[in-house]
Specification:
This protein is of the alpha/beta class and 384 residues long. The protein has 17 helices and eight strands.
Length: 384
């Protein structure tokens, strides 16, 4: 037990150092393996395991046994019972057990002014009943449905938190939490949940003033959503970024960047860094990213790691860039060589921890033995 406690202390120091911009003793290994991948790796049926989260502990325990990590390695964000209770249109379970986000329209074009005037009221009265069909009913039934949904949400996240804490103690993981909350960037919120991809891109060209006003109006709500109830050391707010790679720079500069930056700055003022999942290729916007508060964490998917290190690596923390597709197509030796290449570019000078460019989603999309080989190599050999 003393050895596990010492290991946890060492790993906590690794995370504390890297999140503060100091050079740790070695490169922390922080893989983010999805629960969907983990369930399949553990030999369970995904559909059944997704509905019965008593499976969460044995599934995660198996992952902790078999894959090296300095930080609790399993992430899980979507619960089918919650969305079924709400009658959700925006999150639907597919035939194989995966939660999928279809195109939805929660806000009609003619409702922009109403939303801009009072976004919270519009969300409660118009948008939620439109996206969650079981809320489109009388006030009493709506209240009961919402109460059931919150009970499920709290029970599920409570179970996940207890399991993560228990296994972290068992395996000596760092005392850290990089996913304390998961708000959207304001433009992404309007695009993902309100207007849909197709409509928002038309709106940007036809009615940009209304888009800009809507994005500004919802920003305070998203800052509130992302504010942890009790901020803890070595924690971060997780923010996946969606729409920017599909936008012209002039539209990004006007409609996406200002409120996105406002959110990240607000969390930084509370002493909480933001972990950005920089989806797709953001190389056009590296100069913008540099302007964010120091030690913002940037989990890059695609792009040029060398350019990113040069542009933002002196101020911010970088992770990602290791192509998860390598773990399926290449040999273990080639996968390790790729890890060496990425680390040689990103580790010098610090502000880097190891993770893949995205989380493995299915067992069939990666070779688990390659994941093990890479994680073991990095843990034993990666220094700054």
């Amino acid at each position: 037990m003393a050895d596990v406690a010492a290991l946890a202390q060492e790993r906590t120091q690794l995370m504390a150092d890297v999140l503060a911009g100091r050079i740790p003793k070695r490169v922390p290994v922080v893989p983010a393996l999805t629960y969907e991948f983990s369930v399949q790796y553990a030999g369970m049926d995904l559909m059944s395991a997704a509905w019965n989260l008593e499976n969460f502990e044995p599934v995660c325990d198996r992952i902790c046994q078999d894959f090296y990590a300095d930080y609790f390695p399993v992430i899980h964000l979507r619960f089918p019972a919650l969305y079924k209770t709400l009658g959700a249109k925006n999150w639907i379970m597919g035939s194989q057990g995966f939660m999928q986000h279809p195109e939805v329209v929660g806000l009609l074009e003619e409702e922009y002014d109403e939303f801009i005037s009072s976004p919270y009221d519009c969300i409660m009265e118009k948008i939620l009943p439109r996206i969650y069909t079981n809320l489109d009913t009388d006030p009493q039934t709506r209240s009961i449905t919402m109460a059931k949904a919150f009970k499920i949400f709290n029970d599920e996240f409570g179970n996940i938190g207890m399991v993560a804490a228990k296994l972290s103690r068992k395996y000596g993981y760092a005392n850290a939490n990089l996913f304390t909350a998961a708000p959207s960037a304001p433009f992404d919120f309007v695009a993902d949940q309100l207007r849909g991809f197709r409509n928002i891109m038309k709106d940007v060209r036809r009615i940009p003033d209304k888009v800009e006003a809507a994005v500004k109006a919802v920003t305070p709500l998203l800052i509130k959503m992302g504010t942890p109830a009790a901020p803890a050391p070595n924690s971060a707010v997780f923010m996946p970024l969606h729409m920017a790679p599909y936008m012209r720079e002039k539209d990004f500069a006007r409609l996406y960047w200002p409120t996105f930056k406002e959110c990240v700055e607000a969390f930084a003022e509370m002493g909480i860094p933001t972990l950005l999942f920089v989806e797709q290729d953001w190389m056009r916007f590296l100069d913008y990213l540099y302007e964010l508060p120091e030690n913002t964490i940037m989990w890059f998917e695609y792009g040029d790691p060398k350019l990113s290190k040069e542009k933002v690596g002196s101020k911010h923390i970088i992770t990602g860039f290791y192509p998860v597709t390598f773990l399926y197509t290449e040999t273990a030796v080639e996968c390790i060589d790729k890890a060496k290449e990425v680390i040689d570019i990103l580790a010098p000078g610090g502000r880097y921890y190891f993770n893949f460019d995205k989380s493995p989603l299915t067992l069939g999309s990666v070779n688990p033995e390659n994941i093990k080989a890479v994680l073991d190599y990095v843990a034993q050999n990666a220094n700054y």
